[in-house]
């Protein structure tokens, strides 16, 4: 599930691909995952600003959850409907999407991509990896 989430975020946060090739259900799931990642990267300043703006209490019910979702959806909506013109300059106007793109679509250190392939293939805890020598282990790191 963790690698699947990583792969979904890598595809969905790239302006060229977004949700291409996904079914309607996969798009909905990917949108939810991307939305939760946007909430995670949301600056602290936005939260304090929203808390100051939303102080209306009606019958002891605070309606700030809908407003928080609407505010964070704005950047996602701009990203989804922005046309891709061949470069990544559209990410300059979307700081949270830029952070997500950089986190999930940047180059990896030397052996990280190989280790990820072993993990995806399920070979990380098999016999062929269990008898690795100290020298080879250090080289793998």
Short précis:
The protein has helices at residues 2-12, 24-41, 44-53, 64-81, 95-105, 112-121, 127-130, 134-140; strands spanning 57-58, 61-62. With 141 residues, the protein is mainly α. Helix 1 (2-12) packs across helix 2 and helix 1 crosses helix 5 (95-105).
Question: Topology of this structure?
Answer:
Blueprint: H1 2-12, H2 24-41, H3 44-53, E1 57-58, E2 61-62, H4 64-81, H5 95-105, H6 112-121, H7 127-130, H8 134-140
Antiparallel strand pairs: 1-2
Helix pairs in contact: 1-2, 1-5
Morphology call: elongated
SSE succession: HHHEEHHHHH
Number of domains: 2
Task: Compute the separation of the termini in Å.
Answer: 24 Å
Radius of gyration: 20 Å
- Unreliable parts: 52-68
Number of helices: 8
How is the largest sheet built, in terms of strand order? 1-2
